[in-house]
Specification:
Layout: H1 3-29, H2 34-43
């Protein structure tokens, strides 16, 4: 596989792969039921640790 063939492959299928990964991550973030976990993660730094006395 020479450079030109590799570049053509990356230009066509690489873009499709990155778009699919992007859409998957966006879909995973906004899936139903994820809001509760995001709220929990957002407030995690304010929860007191039981060992902090």
């Amino acid at each position: 596989m020479n450079y030109e063939a590799l570049r053509h492959f990356a230009d066509s299928w690489g873009l499709l792969f990155m778009a699919l990964v992007f859409l998957t991550l966006i879909g995973w973030t906004f899936r139903p039921g994820a809001g509760r976990r995001h709220e929990q993660a957002a407030h995690m730094i304010f929860d007191e640790d039981k060992n902090d006395v």
